[in-house]
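Retry 2 of 3 after timeout on previous attempt. Resubmitting structure tokens to design endpoint.
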């Protein structure tokens, strides 16, 4: 609302002055973060709906028949119109603030800032932000400088795994595909494990997502990974040696093909390990498997995670965390100086180029890579090498 009023104050000052009631100056004259929001849920709800009513009054005037049509073409007014559709609705003449159940769009479509419609809201664990996400790819050979080989900038809500193939395509175009690609958990799922190997001949190496079911999380009883899958016979064998009763190919609600594996109720009721496998009020154990090639790729990755070879190889990825820290602390990587994804991506490229130039210089003059910093207490308590 404030952005629209400021734009109109420049483009059509006389028209806006005649339209605006005096209380709008109190509500929208200062930056919104200079105000104190009303206390309590009801107070904030009423305040939001007052803003919604003010905005609809402005939009009604803009779209009135006697109003000049060019006012509707002002970008700030069009953005406001879209925001009001997303956040408010009218019912019997009243203005209501939408909830998620009432049609608020997902983050990828939701306009989170009137100043940059391409910037969207995202949350990762305890961190939330409005803007973009940067993906850095870095070389990690021991006998060469560690250089950033690719930079990808996406909208903030885009999942890491959804951008992996774009990164691989770009690396392949520059003949920079690695034999082994070390990534964090966000990039690793069954589909990407398989496609990285079959499409790009790249070994995707990183921790897989854990079992979100209770027994998998708590490591108690029989988790899904404890079952043996016989793909040829289309059966699952539980840790107690019992065989599944049926095997049903189906689809998840979003259309993803899966396989439902059910054990017989009579078998589970009589099993002495029943409480290790199903809940007290449960009838039988069921498993949900992905299609064979995906499930096998995921199982192989989970088995590899438990090996010492994986831990040693994956340890090289620690360097990228240092690169991200360097970009954030020295180059303000998490603050965009520009509006729009294209310009933000240019900023990311320039930061990566600056980091690479510094590393190339250090390599040429023989300056060794810095070691990970340790506090004095950590250095004191760490066991000394023999």
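Retry 2 succeeded. Sequence:
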């Amino acid at each position: 609302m404030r952005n629209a009023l400021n734009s109109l104050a420049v483009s059509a000052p006389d028209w806006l002055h005649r339209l605006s009631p005096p209380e709008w100056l109190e509500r929208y004259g200062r930056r919104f973060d200079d105000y104190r929001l009303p206390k309590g849920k009801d107070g904030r709800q009423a305040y939001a709906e007052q803003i919604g009513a003010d905005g609809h009054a402005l939009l009604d005037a803009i779209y009135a028949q006697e109003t000049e049509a060019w006012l509707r073409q002002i970008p700030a007014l069009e953005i406001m119109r879209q925001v009001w559709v997303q956040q408010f609705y009218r019912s019997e003449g009243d203005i209501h603030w939408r909830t998620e159940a009432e049609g608020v769009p997902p983050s990828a479509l939701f306009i989170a800032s009137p100043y940059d419609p391409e910037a969207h809201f995202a949350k990762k664990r305890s961190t939330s932000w409005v803007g973009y996400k940067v993906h850095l790819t870095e070389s990690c050979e021991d006998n060469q400088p560690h250089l950033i080989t690719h930079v990808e900038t996406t909208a903030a809500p885009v999942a890491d795994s959804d951008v992996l193939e774009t990164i691989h395509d770009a690396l392949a175009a520059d003949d920079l595909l690695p034999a082994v690609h070390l990534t964090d958990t966000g990039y690793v799922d069954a589909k990407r494990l398989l496609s990285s190997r079959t499409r790009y001949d790249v070994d995707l190496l990183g921790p897989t997502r854990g079992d979100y079911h209770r027994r998998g999380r708590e490591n108690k009883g029989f988790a899904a990974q404890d079952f043996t899958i016989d793909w040829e016979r289309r059966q699952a064998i539980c840790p107690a040696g019992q065989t599944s009763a049926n095997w049903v190919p189906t689809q998840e609600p979003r259309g993803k093909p899966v396989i439902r594996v059910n054990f017989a109720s009579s078998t589970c009721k009589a099993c002495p390990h029943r409480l290790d496998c199903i809940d007290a009020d449960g009838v039988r154990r069921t498993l949900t498997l992905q299609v064979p090639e995906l499930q096998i790729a995921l199982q192989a990755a989970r088995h590899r995670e438990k090996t010492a070879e994986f831990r040693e190889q994956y340890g090289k990825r620690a360097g990228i965390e240092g690169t991200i820290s360097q970009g954030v602390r020295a180059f303000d990587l998490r603050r965009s100086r520009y509006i729009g994804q294209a310009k933000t991506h240019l900023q990311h490229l320039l930061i990566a180029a600056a980091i690479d130039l510094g590393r190339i210089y250090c390599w040429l003059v023989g300056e060794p890579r810095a070691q990970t910093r340790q506090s004095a207490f950590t250095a004191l308590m760490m066991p000394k090498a023999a």
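Attempt log closed. The mean pLDDT is 91.
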